[in-house]
Amino acid sequence: MHRRIRGLALAVFVLALASLLPLAVPGSLNTAAAPKHIVIGFSTPGTDHGWLAAIQRFAREEAQKLPNTTLIITDGQNNPSKQIGDVESLIARKVDVIVMLPADGKALTPVAAKVKAAGIPLINLDRRIDSQDYYAYIGGDNYGIGYAAGEYIAQRLHGKGNVVEITGPAGISVTNDRSRGFADAIKRFPGIKVVASQPGDFLPDKGMKVMENILQAQRHIDAVYTHDDDMAMGVIQAIKSAHREKEMFVTGVGPLKRVMQMIQNGEPPFAATFDYSPIMSASAVKLAYLAATHKGMSDLAELEIPREILLRASCITKDNVAQFMKIGF
User: Fold this and answer.
1) For 235-253, how does the pLDDT look when each residue is reduced to its tens digit (9 = 90+)?
2) Phi/psi zone of residue 147: left (φ > 0), alpha (ψ -120 to 50 degrees), beta?
3) Rounded to an integer, what distance in angstroms lies between the CA atom of residue 201 and that of residue 239?
4) Helix, strand or coil for residue 315?
5) What is the pLDDT of residue 35?
6) Distance of CA 121 to CAs 37, 67, 138, 166, 190, Å?
7) pTM
8) pLDDT value at residue 198
């Protein structure tokens, strides 16, 4: 009888202890109840094209899932000075953590130092700052995207052809890395000639105008590597208006849902895009929450989140496009 009572008491104690422990969900972040209300400041450069607009949307959706959390999003209106002021305002409000996607990494580097001096963890998203004054960095593998695009184009052209590159804004880390990776891949194929490379600034209208000029200057083009799906839509409009869509194929970076539908339907000239989904902003918000609550990732043994997270540069073609539809925008 005494043995049964002791056994029952032990079972009750184990159940009570278990109720106090956070549940571990495989593949999830450790988001046990925060000890206080968490305020996350999110500084964005603007919403001048679809990818950046989706950055804000995915961030808001993720923040709504987190307990005891308020998300404050600022819009830099494509003006580095405005964005610097936004970050300084977030510092003054004494937010718990700041996520910053810089309009220009170099220009925003000094204000990153101010964030660090204020003792606020900084999550550097996408475009890199020019210092180590961040708690964690998360972004796509831009060099890997450029390299993979170069390989894809060269192999599809069997190592010979005329190629055009339409880049993002000059000088930012994303553009530099995507161009550098592309150049490193292409130089392995002497028969591939880059006949033009101009910035389209991720904007459809500018992409169209730049491509119109290139089409007038170049009598034959085999492929176009663009740094952005939104911009690529303008490029394609120019190609179709010139009735040259059967002459060349286009690759982008997104994945924009309209583009993936074109790829899925085999609609020329879009042939492939590369995964650089703005859903990374949702991951940045999760990382910010963990930094503010002094937690690591539940599937890792480390007590803090990783210093850097580089996302995979997957090539999206007609063969695998269906699996990427859910992360499109």
Assistant:
1) 999 999 999 999 999 999 9
2) alpha
3) 18
4) strand
5) 59
6) 16, 19, 14, 35, 47
7) 0.81
8) 98
Delineate the domains of the chain, giving CATH numbers in brackets: 29-134+279-311 (3.40.50.2300), 142-276+315-327 (3.40.50.2300)
The first and second tokens of residue 181, run together, are 């990776």
Give the start-end residues of each E strand in 110-178.
122-125, 136-140, 160-167
Between CA 248 and CA 231 the distance in angstroms is 17
Write down the pLDDT at residue 49.
79
How sure is the predictor about 39, in pLDDT bands with cuts at 50, 70 and 90? very high
Amino acid at 242: A
DSSP 11: H
- Per-residue pLDDT, 7: 42
Here the tokens at position 143 are 């060099």
Let me know if 186 is exposed, middle or buried by CB neighbors in 10 A (0-12, 13-18, 19+): buried
> What share of the chain has pLDDT > 70, as a percent?
89
The H or E element containing residue 61 is helix 50-63
Please report the pLDDT score of residue 297 as a whole number.
93
Asked if 326 and 257 touch (Cβ cutoff 8 Å), the reply is: no
Which amino acid type is present at position 127? R
Strand order in the sheet with 136-140: 69-75, 38-44, 97-100, 122-125, 136-140, 308-311
Burial class (CB in 10 A: 0-12, 13-18, 19+), 83: buried
pLDDT at 20 over 60: no
Contacts 24+ apart (CB under 8 A), 217-222: 218/162, 218/164, 220/162, 220/247, 221/162, 221/163, 221/164, 221/195, 221/247, 221/248, 222/157, 222/161, 222/162, 222/163, 222/247, 222/248, 222/249
Whether the predicted pLDDT of 30 surpasses 90: no
Tokens of 39: 């305020």
CA distance 23 to 61: 23
CB 271 within 8 A of CB 156: yes
